[in-house]
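#random but structural
TW: two for the price of one
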Amino acid sequence: MLDQAYSRRQFLGLAGGLVSIVGLGLVGCGGSGASDAADKGSAAAAESVSGEVTYDGASSFQALVEAAAEKFMDANPDVSVSGSGNGSGKGLTAVAAGTVTIGNSDVFAETKLEADQVKNLVDHEVAVVGMGPVVSKNVKVDDLSLEQLKGIFSGQITNWKEVGGGDATIVVLNRKAGSGTRATFEAAVFGDETVDFKGDAELDKSGDVQTQMGSTDNAISYLDFSHFDDSKFKAIKVEGVEPKSANVTDDSFKIWATEHMYCAKDADDATKAFLEFMLSDDVQGKLVEEQGFIPVSAMKVVKDASGKVSAK
């Protein structure tokens, strides 16, 4: 998943502190590699950009995109960046249809779209995110195996006492179909098995899971690391491994995904400039980790569209 890294450029300060993003003359969707951009960025002629960038898709890294958008718009007041986090499936469908300029996704477009739609899109891998199970604060379980998670989310295990907890019915809070977080978690837990992925409720967004988990006893769900909240619920180990970014980088913790931002091959200059900014040092060097994500450059392994993990 990490081999298609989008080109990076550093963004130069102009007089008065205004940073203008290179537009027409720079690499856009489908451009050259990151090292190329790094070499050329300092010498590129700055050119101001204007226009509207819109996005939809994964709610898991919407906060990262929003934080980057604020910085980008501060430097480029003639560009508007706005969007929603309605799930990876909706984001990919929207960018393929041209109703937004960027589709954010926890999964490869190939897993959600037809081949003729995918060929018109360009992938930009902006970060990596760990995802893991979370349980209500009253649940006396701190570690579950993948086999136990499979039993819980398939409805075969229905009481916490079956996995070392108290005698209480397990409340399963699932994400709706189309969620990239759901797809990532489902693939890690069930693999290639065809299993009815069950839940007592199906929620739209990561924020909805946060809220519901904070007000529900005996519940279990799953979230990306950036949405963990110790004040409302607790994240638990999987196979004895703590859900930490350091354990994701070498695949010790198995539930993780690359965060993709897709655009059309003929994307407008404002969209190209914003995607370049997402891969610049301004975002990758600081903002990614501040928002609870892992820089792509920190990963020791890569994952392809089929879910196969291999060393870099």
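TW: number two ↓
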Amino acid sequence: MSKTPIGEMKLSRNTEPADIVRQKIHEDISENEQRYRDLVEHVPLCIGVICEGRVVFINQSGARMMAAEKPEDIIGKTVIDFIHPDFRQLVATRLTKVLMGEQALPMEEKFVRLDGKTIHVEVSAYPFRYQGKAASQVIVRDITVEKESRMAARKSETLFSQLFHVSPMAIVMLDTEGNVAQVNPGFEKMFGYSFAELVGKGLNQTIVPDALMSEGNDLNTLISTQQVVRIETKRKRKDGALLSVIVYGLPVHYEDKTIGIFGVYVDITEQKKIEEELKVRNIELDNFVYKVSHDLRAPLSSVLGLVNLAQMPNNHDNPIEYLSVIGQKVGQLDHFITDVLSHSKNLKLDIKIEPINFKNLIEQTFTDLSYLKGAEQIKRNVSIDGVPFFNDKWRIGEIFRNLISNAIKYRNFHRVDPEINLRINIDEDKAVIAFSDNGIGIDPASLGKIFNMFYRASEQSDGSGLGLYIVKNAIEKLGGQVQVRSKIGEGTSFIITLPNHAEE
């Protein structure tokens, strides 16, 4: 039996021949290399190697990213040709640093594909050795869709932000507790509160009138239950003024949950004023139709009756007497029509600011009314003090015409000294006109009604009942105010305040 040397026995037990070891190592390296290649080929990123300014390797994902059918369509091309002109200088600098051993951190760039389309990418690069030469391994991620999504989101956010901040409507954003999270400038302007005064507070504490507090609570409850609400109501400014508004309440949803509330307020205060004015005008129209049927037809009926009477056979009355009565009735008709036209003109005519010469205007008014019976008996006392006055000449003339006409018509027949007193004081802001007479006066029960359309406070009246109504409307149209005091048997006084538009 042959003996095996101890050294050979140890070698056979613990080692293998060198060629077998080398073969296994080679197989292991080949297997690892194949795994690496598989990983590189299947990873959804562009992985490439750049050496001496050219692409020497690119994976299949990278080739598809650059619109190539296969990697060979890219390999060998100058890398700078794929860089968007805006980034070429920056990329060249980064690649130089990588060749010097530095790592290039991820950065957004733009590539130009083979088909000419520009894509947004995120690129990082690392030092690499290729065939013994310094090279760069680059990893590229296509972020075009992500970038466009971010840009779309920013665009939407910008559009919303501009809509929120520029909108003339008042907009408030409430949190889930119903407290103010944000308001736009339109809200601050409409209600007079700054954002700092409102943030973290409930609107019921600020803009909801006390009488509507329950409505405000109900509104928040409805909106929080994901109902869109529209109501027409009142809200309160910081200075206490009430506004007529339309309120839109819109819940904000995210993942099927209400995360906040948008409140949009539309100021309809002026619209409501117009609606109220239209109601008044409709009432006036109804009254006017009634008055036309009475005050116009009555004199016409009298005239027709006198004409028929004059044409009757065997009537030996003096026709001159009939003409006198007819003239009186026609005069009433003319006065009524004049007042109606004056009222219509006051409603429709634009205000015309011009210098007012009160002295000439008052004298002309007395001259125009000199035809009235008893006008020559009136003593007039006029005093005018102050600075120049600017306002609407026609409307002020109508105010004086009606006041002076009434003072003449309703003078006290038992007095031998009927008079009209006019004192006008003018400053930079206003004119205060004190008009008084010593006529028959107005009883207390009628005093609150004298400015109503077609109201006649005295049996002595044969006018249209529009005079003081025109006065009140003209004063309001000019932005002024009027107060009246009267006592039966002693006379009536009016205090009229009109703004001075000297600056205009």
